[in-house]
């Protein structure tokens, strides 16, 4: 049986949530993980979603959403911080490959967000390029604290919201696709122990 090609943001979002539900329940289908799929996608890719997530080793996108080869165009950085390379990669996934959905995936107890909160409190950033990552997360911590939030996971939600907003505001390509209804951006927070995802923010229609 040939799986339907997912062409709308709503359809793509539903497929991701259904896959996550299978992962949580332990009833994974492991779709698109066999030799036939490997041969089918070798000539070219047509992913139905771009997944921009934290690099945390427990956040393996194809596993937690029960997907396989050619389904997701994955971009990951610590704390899902974005620079030109990230924006260019996401734009490629949407503009060149036609993905109708971009997902920003954060998670509870995020080390980058925790480090940013600590750096802001202490006034000392980590050394090396880790400090650069932390500095890019600090504005989210500042915004959360200005809103009266105090918990790390509340900071995580704010960082997800700000990342979703930044993708839309910084990329004219993404903004145009979202405004035209051809793409949407969804910010999800993943719970490490439970394996569930929760919608935090979105741009464009996904429901």
Task: For the structure shown, list the relevant keywords.
alpha/beta, Beta-carbonic Anhydrase, Chain A, 5-stranded mixed sheet, 8 helices, 16% strand
Largest sheet: 5 strands, mixed
DSSP helical segment count:
8
Query: What is the overall pLDDT average?
Result: 95
* Known CATH architecture: 3-Layer(aba) Sandwich
| CATH fold title | Beta-carbonic Anhydrase, Chain A
Fraction in helix: 40-55%
The CATH superfamily is identified as Carbonic anhydrase
Give the strand tally: 5
Separation of the first and last Cα atoms: 26 Å
Number of domains: 1
Order of the strands making up the biggest sheet: 2-1-3-4-5
User: Which runs of at least 5 residues are low in confidence (pLDDT < 50)?
Assistant: none
Rg from C-alpha positions?
A: 17 Å
Strand proportion: 15-25%
Q: So what's the CATH class?
A: Alpha Beta
Q: What class do helices, strands and sheet pairing give?
A: alpha/beta
**Overall morphology:** globular
How do the SSEs run, as a string of H and E? HHEHEHEHHHHEE
